[in-house]
Amino acid sequence: MGGGPAVSLALFGAEHLGGLAALAEDPLVLRFTRFPDPLPEGFAVSWLARYDAGRRTGSMEGFAILADGDFAGIAVAPEIDRSRGVVELGYAVTPELRGRGVATAALNHLTSWALEQQQLQRAELLIGAANVASKRVAEKCGYRYDHTVPNVQVKPGRIEDAEHWIREQIVNSS
């Protein structure tokens, strides 16, 4: 990828808690994610505990996005429905790395993990209708707009329209 940083995903662990705590206070992350606002005390630790539990049951997964080896955000599968072959994905990048291809590379890695490594059939994104940057990332990663979901409760006290984007597994019929 051009002149941008080398991007990879690592299973989210305790070593990433400081980065998550800082990311979770970013105004755009608070606006466009399901992170509670205001953040409760100990949010990062409880977030990790929830994803650790989901990892054990196979119902969710969390990764740290690394850019040149440093924490750059999160890439998540907050809902994995193996019986239907469907996964919801999400991502958030630190402010200083936005616009440098990090989100696109991270979503490509996350999508590959979901569709190829986990052998799920469809990856879905639920993107706030006003989140133009995230919609651009989805398009660059081969997702297509499916429909608008009106009046989504993003978090308590925040209701807005969201867009449903999908990317399906390409199955060779040879």
Automatic annotation (TrEMBL):
GO molecular function, one term: protein-N-terminal-alanine acetyltransferase activity
InterPro entries listed in its UniProt record: Acyl_CoA_acyltransferase, GNAT_dom, Ribosomal_N-acetyltransferase
Record-annotated N-acetyltransferase domain positions: 18-166
UniProt-listed PROSITE patterns: GNAT
GO cellular component, one term: cytoplasm
Transmembrane segments: none
CDD domains found in the cross-reference section: NAT_SF
PANTHER family: ACETYLTRANSFERASE, RIBOSOMAL-PROTEIN-SERINE ACETYLTRANSFERASE
Protein name per Swiss-Prot or TrEMBL: Unannotated protein
Lineage: unclassified sequences, metagenomes, ecological metagenomes
